[in-house]
Amino acid sequence: MSNKVYRTLCLSVVVAAAVASTGCTNYVKRSEFDAAITKLQNTDQGLQQQIDSLSQDMKTHFAQYDTEITAMQGRIQVDDVAHFAFNQATLQDQDKAKLDEFAKIMRAHHSDALVTVEGFADPAGSAAYNKRLGMERAKAVRNYLVDQDGMAASQVRAVSYGEARNRQVKPGATRAAGAPNRRATLVIDFAGNAS
User: Fold this and answer.
1) What is the CATH number of the domain that holds 136?
2) According to the model, what pLDDT value does residue 120 have?
3) Would residue 14 count as lying in a domain?
4) Predicted pLDDT at 19
5) pTM of the model
6) Regarding beta strands 183-190 and 75-83, do their DSSP bridges make them parallel or antiparallel, or are they unpaired?
7) Domain presence at residue 10
8) Which among 192, 179, 177, 169 has a CA at the least distance from the CA of 95?
9) Residue 158 CB: number of other CB atoms within 10 A?
10) In terms of Cα–Cα distance, which of 116, 136, 122, 126 is closest to 165?
11) What residues of the chain score a pLDDT lower than 70?
């Protein structure tokens, strides 16, 4: 065997040994894997219990407003917390009462929850205009929750879907018929730790 072949063979053995020893460091013990899975399942179960509890709280307190509460995977959606006049982004008094109730529940039971206010418009104007109007509506609700109801500014964010057809309550409806489209909804994206 030549010197060159011998050196190549030795180098191959050294590289193979290095790869083998490095590869083994990435393996996880079965007991550690099982423990991690159990921890994730417990966390998931705990979050689901919080979501179920919050959903029930909302249904109990919002029954008087005939507001639909939907529990989805990891989220709760509170439909129709505010409606707006045509081409307006001013909160109405009856909607302020709903928002006060919502903030009260959140402060009492889920003070670290993350809430998204979704703003919508009917399709009467241009798509760009309606996107801006939807954002003004979402911000009106967000600002009320923060300024009047004392929710943390970092806890409430605003987004606009404008006239998004797949999110319209009455597709294509405007003016009086489109009133259900001119709204804001609340989505609780993370139930937080129940206190």
Assistant:
1) 3.30.1330.60
2) 98
3) no
4) 47
5) 0.70
6) antiparallel
7) no
8) 179
9) 21
10) 122
11) 1-26, 44, 46-51, 53-55, 57-67, 72-73, 190-195
For position 38, what pLDDT does the model report?
84
Asked if residue 31 is part of any domain, the answer here is no
Show the domain range for 158. 50-190
Picking from 167, 64, 68, the residue whose alpha carbon sits closest to that of residue 122 is 167
Write the DSSP assignment of 17-35 as a string of letters. Answer: HHHHHHHHTT---HHHHHH
Q: What angle do CA 164, 72, 108 make, to 5 degrees?
A: 105
Residues 92-98: contacts with CB under 8 Å, at least 24 apart:
96/144, 96/148, 97/65, 98/62, 98/65, 98/67
143 vs 150: CA distance, rounded Å: 10
What is the pLDDT at residue 25? 57
Q: What is the pLDDT of residues 80-132, one digit of tens each?
A: 899 999 999 999 999 999 999 999 988 888 888 899 999 999 999 999 999 99
Between CA 134 and CA 141, with CA 136 as vertex, the angle to 5 degrees is 95
Give the Cα separation of 24 and 153 in Å (integer): 48
148 lies in some domain: yes
- Closest residue by Cα to residue 113 from 101, 122, 102, 100: 102
Other beta carbons within 10 Å of 111: 14
Name the domain count of the chain.
1
pLDDT at 116: 96
